Amino acid sequence: MAKTKKASTPKKKTKSSKAFVYIVFTFIFSAIIAGSSVWYVVFKPNVKLSKHKQFIYIYSTDTYEDVEESLKPLLKSMQTFKWVSAYMGYPNKVKPGRYTLADEMTNKQLVSLLRSGKQEPVKLVIRTYSLIEDIAHVVSKNLETDSVAFLQKLTDRAKLSSRGVDDQSAMSFILPNTYYLNWNSNPDTIINKLYREYIKFWTPEREHQAALQGLTKGQAVILASIVWREIMHADEMPRVAGVYLNRLRKDMLLQADPTVKYALKEFDLRRILQVHLEAESPFNTYKNKGLPPGPICNPPAAAIDAVLNPEEHEYIYFCAQPGNTGYHSFAINLQEHNKNASLFHKYLNSLRKR
Questions:
Q1: Which letter does DSSP use for residue 200 in this model?
Q2: C-alpha distances in Å from residue 344, one per residue of 139, 258, 323, 328
Q3: What pLDDT digit, counting tens, does each position of 224-279 carry?
Q4: pTM here?
């Protein structure tokens, strides 16, 4: 008779196997919690702006604590920013500049940007100004640099001499233009940028044209500054430039009204009277022959080109036309000029009677 096998009974789980399962479960759960925490700290959006993008300015003297203070109004959680900053070593790598923040940036994106020093350049628009102080003001208004520090560098005789200009001609190489610079650029960097654009402007062809007119580059800029302040319509610049060049060649006084205004520092003066012509100044071309010692403004490229390519004619006089047209009447002799001037003065007198 065959023997039948007894059915086997299932083995009971040991205490050790239960402990193992518990440990694994606990590990997985902890990993999930830790991963969620890391994601929350590092990758969850933390920047909240009132508009799509906003700038933050970090000065050259700012510390990490200053950066935190600047960011306070823009962050949802300062604590998570601090954690990521510490982990990425940012407190010891603060870089000055103007940084563009985007809404909903994460801590990692924000710290990476600030650590990189990657800035959005500032668009610095320099127009035509009468005084070098005005340019310094515009620069300091748009960039970190102080206007006084910039002005000191701009009028440094040794620096100017190395560029071939003197202390009265600092404006000679500042062309009205749009320049792109980092917000925290120092005065030397800014001046070098301006000077490079000036050097780029003076091509061999332009230098050749200046020589043909008997002018150095600096003299061409000085005369261009007078031409620019004299005209209201750009199409008249070559003709006015031709008048002044004719007077220089004849060794005549330039007798340019804008130089008198500059000498008096009365730039809004509407009528030049005899008393104004007596101003004692090397910039008064009614009393001093030749060009003044420096430009009376920083003229645009078009004015310099008008001096380099003047209209060829025999005019040596001009005065404003009657009728407030903004144009001038030109003459080849004093008799003709006096007639033009008389007509203009009659027009002015008629305005007073109205």
A1: H
A2: 41, 18, 8, 10
A3: 999 999 999 999 999 999 999 999 999 999 999 999 999 999 998 888 889 999 99
A4: 0.83
Give me the long-range contacts of 59-67 (CB less than 8 A, separation at least 24).
59/96, 59/144, 59/184, 60/96, 60/144, 60/184, 62/94, 62/96, 63/94, 64/90, 64/91, 64/92, 64/94, 67/94, 67/114
Burial of residue 267 (CB within 10 Å: 0-12, 13-18, 19+) is middle
Domains along the chain?
53-116 (3.30.1490.480), 122-201 (no CATH), 204-313 (no CATH)
Whole-number CA gyration radius for the chain: 36
256, 272 Cβ separation under 8 angstroms: no
* 150 membership: H or E segment, kind and range: helix 147-154
pLDDT at 113 over 50: yes
139-152, pLDDT tens digit by residue? 999 999 999 999 99
What distance, in Å, lies between the first and last C-alpha atoms of the chain? Answer: 147
Cβ neighbours around 231 below 10 Å, total: 20
Encoded tokens for 142: 């748009």
**Predicted confidence (pLDDT) per residue in 306-352, tens digit:** 999 999 999 999 999 998 899 999 999 999 999 999 998 888 888 77
